[in-house]
Amino acid sequence: MATRKKSKTTAKKAKAKKQKTPKYIFIVGGVMSGVGKGVASSSIATCLQARGLKVTAMKIDPYINVDAGTMNPTEHGECFVLKDGLETDQDMGNYERFLNTDLPSINYMTTGSVYQSVIEKERNLEYGGKCVEVVPDIPLEVIRRIKTAGQQAGADVVQVEVGGTVGEYQGVLFLEAIRMMKTETPDDVAVVMVSYLPVPGSIGEMKTKPTQTAVRALNSAGVFADMIICRSPMGVDDRRKAKIARFCNVQVENVISAPDLDSVYDVPLNFEKDGLSIVLCKQLGLPCKKKSDLKAWQRFVRRSNNVTDTVKIAVVGKYFNSGDFVLSDVYLSVLEAIKYSSYDLNLKPEISYLSAQDFEDKKNLKQLKKFDGVLVPGGFGKTGIAGKLNVIEYVRKQGIPYFGICYGMQLMVLEYAQNVLKLKNASTEEINSKAEHLVIAVQESQKNLIKENKMGGTMRLGEYEAKLKKGSVAQKAYKSDKINERHRHRYEVNLDYAGAIEDAGLMFSGVSPDGELMEIAELPASDHPFFLGVQFHPELQARPLDPHPLFTAFVKAAYETHS
Ligand code: GLN
Description:
Blueprint lengths: L1 H17 L4 E7 L7 H13 L5 E7 L11 H4 L2 E3 L5 E3 H10 L8 E3 H13 L10 H20 L3 E6 L9 H13 L4 E8 L12 H11 L7 E6 L5 H11 L6 E5 L7 H7 L2 H9 L10 H11 L3 E9 L3 E2 L2 E2 L5 H13 L2 E9 L17 E4 L8 H14 L3 E4 L1 H13 L6 E3 L8 E6 L4 H5 L8 E9 L4 H6 L3 E8 L1 E3 L1 H9 L3 E5 L6 E5 L8 E4 L14 H14 L1
Parallel strand pairs: 1-6, 1-7, 2-5, 2-6, 7-8, 8-9, 10-13, 10-14, 14-15, 15-23, 16-17
Antiparallel strand pairs: 3-4, 11-12, 17-20, 18-19, 18-21, 21-22, 22-23
Helix pairs in contact: 2-4, 2-10, 5-6, 6-7, 13-19, 14-15
């Protein structure tokens, strides 16, 4: 009996210990968008993690879209898929990379997803007959999710980034959620505003007024900033720090200088120069380690700054052009993954963004000769397909290392079927469902969804297992026979053609455990320095402190082939 009692008490104690109440840090944007609020949030999380705290990071996007999967990437940047399959904003990728952890879908919400849950609950009579209202029921649902995320993670700190800029109508309900939480437990909530201090060329002086105005806009929503992170082309001097402190109701040490830096990975180290994590821990009464442990991070940054030799990689995509600008954000995780593997190999990556459409004219293919490796990332639809197929044929024949991701793998298989198997009328069902040889076909489970136009959140999404063939390029890179990778696709290699393709020399070295889905295609190392495509998105699991083995194998092959 006694023993039983004791173990019950221990269990209770353990439970109490587990269910600690986390502290909450909200990050809002002032003045304008595009100043690196996501990187600032990720860096705050890194700084707190380095103080020995368990941190989880969340993102709120103020769109009606239920998730980020239905948005055009040229509008909203890359769609980042979480391990459990939710299609989210690229900031979630930044958090995962900076914290070196997987995050669950409770950590991401949009206005649309919050309204959807509230309406569903109302339909299920979960509000017990009361009138459900925008205020307080929408902010209450936001708060419920934030608290659940904290509990699920067993976090000391839940960090929540609110998308958009203070003063926008669509962010009001999220500010209301912050106000409600801070009113209820003022000691558990801190608000950080990431602001921008311009240095207009005509004046040559850093101006604080826009920040003061943004703080007032925040105050008018009943929310007060505890810390102001000052993004600017240069560091903020003491004089301006004092001015911001005085006019924005914060202590001088709560004004953090955040100048433009060469690399986003320098940001946590820069924040710590101004003692950011100490200030936040003090503010929230968080027990933190006296000495911040950013050693591994520092090593990574040092390494990336000291790389010597160069490796030239071309990324051939279709979403790069937006008016007069090039949008590399669309393939953010791919670019970061190339960087991590390059640094790991002591190489400086020189990444060029090439538009697939330019290669519809075969004369332009010669340009590819100057690159050490070519990568075709994921994509959808017709645009740029002909150019990508030409590129793949060229690099296959020229022995230029090639890495195809998702669509990049499907097109690699299609190119092989067209040019090696000589299946002239071969296509992917995605662009020509009437083609004689549908080498890439729609997944069985997708057929009805497409017919009924149920396109949101219905692709094959998230992590799935695959088995690797012994001795293959993939298996040697992973140093494992079994992998788990994240997916986002509706089409797949048509099994009816898999045998013929393999007989012609392109091996499927990774397959789903039931053998139904071709996950990796490759040419043997004896035939090509590196010609490999994956149905999944390895870039989503590449981390600064843990580079992805396939990217490393690709970059290594690229460097060795061309140098
Ligand atoms: N469009 C292809 C499919 O849906 C590839 C998707 C992707 O590249 N993410 O299967």
